[in-house]
Design a protein that fits this description.
CATH class: Mainly Alpha
Largest sheet: 4 strands, antiparallel
Order of helices and strands: HHEHHHEEHEHHHHHHHHHHHHHH
CATH topology: Glycosyltransferase
Number of strands: 4
Strand content: under 5%
Number of domains: 1
Oligomer: single chain
Structural class: mainly alpha
Distance between the termini: 22 Å
Mean pLDDT: 96
Helix content: 40-55%
Low-confidence stretches: 1-14
Radius of gyration: 20 Å
């Protein structure tokens, strides 16, 4: 019996978790990551307005969006992927968010990102792609509200400095959002779709890797997989949002041009191939694409590496993020009738591992023995007026503020996990870690 199935029989079938509570917590984490002027309904008491002048030095309003992780940089590439997955989840599981009492919060979570991307798209062939220098940012430990490192630089993509991956992912995020908001705010949906169309043309007509054009981003989120997956991803999302055959033709062409039929190693901010295969199968019903999805599912279920306690181990960094991404793809495959029972069981065992099947939760503020020392600046700071600095980073004590809902990086390949603020491999949090996790929680509500 495959390891994940054995673990399900031993633990997962007996464990019961409140998905509504976990879903609510996960969305609170996104509120803790907001940048700019916070809304009047802000629910994070230790957070206030910050970086309201982002973009002022270049004459553009780039305030808003999400801080990437335990730091304050706005890396648009993983942020756009995060927004695509959250919008995708809202499209597929609106009823589940509603029944959990989280529909309004989920819409606000998606819109906080798309509002920022719309600001960043300042002309047809100009897209701002990052705010904040990662090196300067990482040398600072303190509250974002107390930032004292000077104005933050911003970088953009242009025809002379292209980034088909970033422009394509942003187009996908906005196309998905246009579907997510179609029933509740058609005017906003139209705005998102207009930007998605124009960004897709920018990505298609001026090709290049964004991390070559924004070298600072390349130090932290290099586009290892290239831009072919994002071009295909953007095209198929635009087809889903518009049902216009030209976008499907483009997606099919890119699928062949960039060899999207191979078996991916993961589904993440860098590599969208598994998502491309899934949407191509879902929207065309073509046997070729279904076979590609089946191959990936078979890899996850029967060939991938697992820890002794049943966690799929696809990468040493952000292992739970990758397990959540694989689980989301499997749940979508199950909806298509591809290894339905096996995929649903797989996703349940992976998410239950995160929620506490191994004796402790990996989600801050949720479940039994949750993380207390996430690598996260704001939550490590004491209440005002006490200062916050590197002494708080080095403190052995739990974070003074509970970072409710944040999924930490996770254990090593032997299920060993270190609840240490200094261990950013196992205990950092990021917005993309929570994206597929959030999506899976909503999907599991109906299984």
């Amino acid at each position: 019996m495959k390891l994940f199935a054995l673990v399900l029989c031993i633990t997962g079938a007996l464990a019961q978790y409140n998905y509504d509570e976990a879903l609510s917590a996960s969305l609170l984490f996104y509120e803790a990551q907001r940048s700019g002027v916070l809304p009047s309904d802000n629910r994070i008491p230790y957070r206030g307005n910050c970086f309201v002048d982002d973009g002022a030095s270049v004459g553009v309003d780039l305030s808003g969006g999400y801080h990437d992780a335990g730091d304050y940089v706005k890396f648009n590439f993983p942020m756009a992927f995060t927004n695509t997955i959250l919008a995708w989840s809202l499209i597929e599981n609106e009823a589940e968010f509603s029944s959990a009492g989280q529909l309004d919060y989920m819409r606000k979570t998606v819109k906080w990102g798309t509002d920022y991307f719309i600001k960043c798209h300042t002309s047809d062939n100009e897209l701002w792609g990052q705010v904040g220098d990662g090196n300067v940012d990482h040398s600072y430990w303190g509250r974002c509200e107390d930032w004292n490192q000077g104005a933050r630089p911003a970088w953009k993509l242009t025809t002379g400095a292209p980034g088909s991956d970033l422009a394509g992912e942003t187009a996908a995020a906005l196309a998905a959002a246009s579907m997510a908001f179609r029933s509740s705010d058609s005017g906003y949906a139209d705005t998102c779709l207009d930007h998605a169309r124009r960004l897709f043309e920018f990505a298609r007509n001026y090709r290049g890797k964004y991390s070559d054009s924004i070298s600072n981003a390349g130090q932290f989120y290099n586009s290892w997989s290239g831009y072919g997956d994002e071009l295909t991803w953007a095209a198929i999302w635009l087809y889903r949002a518009t049902e216009e055959a030209s976008y499907l033709d483009a997606a099919k062409g890119f699928y062949n041009e960039f060899s999207m039929s191979g078996t991916p190693s993961q589904f993440s901010w860098d590599d969208k191939k598994a998502g491309v295969q899934l949407l191509m199968a879902k929207l065309t019903g073509d046997g070729q694409y279904r076979a590609d999805v089946q191959n990936y599912v078979n890899y996850l279920l029967y060939q991938a590496r697992y820890t002794p306690k049943g966690l799929i181990f696809l990468d040493t960094w952000g292992v739970l993020r990758h397990a959540a991404g694989a689980s989301w793809i499997c749940l979508q495959a199950a909806d298509l009738g591809i290894s339905t029972t096996e995929c649903q069981n797989f996703a349940k065992t992976q998410v239950h591992y995160m929620l506490g099947d191994v004796g402790h939760s990996f989600v801050c503020g949720y479940g039994t023995n949750p993380p207390q020392r996430p690598h996260h600046r704001p939550s490590s700071c004491p209440d005002y007026p006490a200062p916050c600095d590197w002494n708080d980073y080095n403190s052995p004590n739990p974070n003074p503020q509970v970072l409710t809902g944040a999924l930490v990086g996770g254990p090593n390949d032997q299920d060993v996990w270190n609840d240490s603020r200094q261990d950013y491999v196992t205990n950092e949090v990021t917005i993309d870690y929570n994206a597929a996790f959030t999506a899976c929680l909503a999907a599991l509500k109906r299984i």
